[in-house]
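Supplementary Methods, section 5.1.

A reviewer requested that the exact input to the structure prediction be made available. We therefore reproduce it here, unchanged from the version used in the analyses.
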Amino acid sequence: MLQALGLGPAEEALYTALLARPAASAQDLARQTGIEKAETARILLDLVARGLVAVATEAESGAPDSADPGAGLQPARYRLAPPSVALAPLLVEQRNALHRAESAFSMLTEQYRSTAAHPASNVVEVVVGVEQVAHRFHQLQRGAQRELLVFLVGEPIAVPREDADMSENAALDRGVDFQVVAARNYLDGHDAVQDVRAAMMAGLKLRLVESLPLKMIVSDRERAMVPLDMADSGGEPSAIVVHRSGLLTALVHLFEKEWAQARPLYTTTTGLRADPAADRQPTEGELEVLALLLAGISDRRAASQLGLSVRTVERRIRRLMDLAAVDSRLQLGWHAARAGWL
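The structure derived from this sequence is encoded token-by-token as follows.
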């Protein structure tokens, strides 16, 4: 937790140990944390110099935990400086460092684009080799701040499944919206099902289709990677990284189309369950309600024209929204047009 502010693991252990007590000696803290006494004393002196810890006064220290009652000189005892005061400068320093890094990132990106040998190199980058492909894959996942869109097809080639799972879990922990469309063959095998189920329980959204045209990962709709699958012909694994361009927009639209037509998967106590395909299409009665809705007719008037109750109309609209996986009627109209419901 505090390593982001520049404290090492041992420093953080001692700092948090002091949170639970008003004052403690180096010997007390060494015994509590398992850190060598000499190392504990050195770290405490460093924390004192940095203003994070202070030497407790006699009134603050109270009765020592482990001092020899017969000793004339009691060991020094330490207390925390108020975190709101002591840690604030570290937080400001880290924020300033991040701001400088972001500025350098923007400058280097613009410089790279302006000096590239050919405009196409700003759009598509070819990555060759297992290590390079895996490196770019993890960069895309770890760099995502808002959204990851993924096509999963067949067995992994350059990135082992367990490595992909680690990056995936890190993205979910950051609160990234993780949407995945998987081809049916990706779920072949017990381990794949269990891994996917665990990810879904952590927040991943998954839908299933019979087949997909390619593997793909899109990060924040700003860059994407598509494997070229040259390994099938004996060559090294390779991929293209696509930056913001019309090509990237086309890849995002392809994902959205497949997502809209895919079948949602749900977790069960033993594995996964897909919605039956027949249940994923609107009924004739629901399409009648949808046509009136898109014509701008209110629920009450639609109920009157169709000879239904208002509650039945609302229930059919709610199911249509669930089928389309949308949250508003405006989104429902957009999905209905794309899915060819009307």
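The chain has three domains: 2-88, 119-278, 281-339. These observations are discussed further in the main text.
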